[in-house]
Amino acid sequence: MIDTEELKKEIIEAFKDVSFPSHCGIHAAEAIDDRVSDPIELRKITKKMDFSGKWWDIPEEHISGNSLGFNYLDSEGVLYYLPAFMLLAIEKPIYKNLHTLAWELSPTVELEPDDKGLYKHFREKFSKITGNKRIVCIKFMHFLKEKLSTISALDAEDIEKAIKHEYWQKNS
């Protein structure tokens, strides 16, 4: 069984110096799904709608179950929001919080040969998750697998595949 208090401390320590991505917060990332691509407009949405303090203070309602926004974050956005998502999943291990991360931390979902661009996109999104950040993400994935095994065997199996994927196995 994973010591969740220790895992939370490790997440906070690994990501403690991460700052808010003022160019595109999670609400602006959601707007990308609505075909908003102008950087000036995305900054306006971010300034108006997104919490911009320390990531550990992000209000739950900004992230809980918000996989749509997470889908469109760039590497700086992932760096800022990922630890908040992980802490929320530890503190409130309900399906919507766990499933979002099971999906987002998976480098590939049985891709067809023409979907290699998705893996490249994943690598770019997670390119700033290195060193201790990467190590704590892998530890978190084991927590995620443990929790999902009691809720959704399929999701637990998917996160097991993700843990074993070459992306998370290689050193960076």
Portion of residues in beta strands equals: under 5%
One letter per element, helices H and strands E, the order comes to HHHHHHHHHHH
Query: Which regions have little confidence, pLDDT < 50, spanning 5+ residues?
Result: none
Give average pLDDT, whole number.
Answer: 91
Q: Please compute the radius of gyration using only Cα atoms.
A: 15 Å
Secondary-structure-derived class: mainly alpha
Envelope shape: globular
Distance separating the two termini: 27 Å
Give an account of the 3D structure:
With 172 residues, the chain is mostly helical. The chain is 65% helix and 0% strand. The chain contains 11 helices and no strands. Helix 9 (131-148) packs antiparallel against helix 10 (153-164). It is globular and about 45 Å long. It starts with a helix and ends with a helix. The model has no long low-confidence stretch (mean pLDDT 91).
Topology summary:
Elements (H helix, E strand, L loop, with lengths): L3 H12 L10 H8 L5 H11 L10 H4 L3 H5 L3 H17 L3 H10 L11 H10 L5 H18 L4 H12 L1 H4 L3
Describe, in short, the structure shown.
The chain has helices at residues 4-15, 26-33, 39-49, 60-63, 67-71, 75-91, 95-104, 116-125, 131-148, 153-164, 166-169. By secondary structure, it is mainly alpha-helical. The model has no long low-confidence stretch (mean pLDDT 91).
Name a few traits of the molecule.
172 residues; mainly alpha; globular
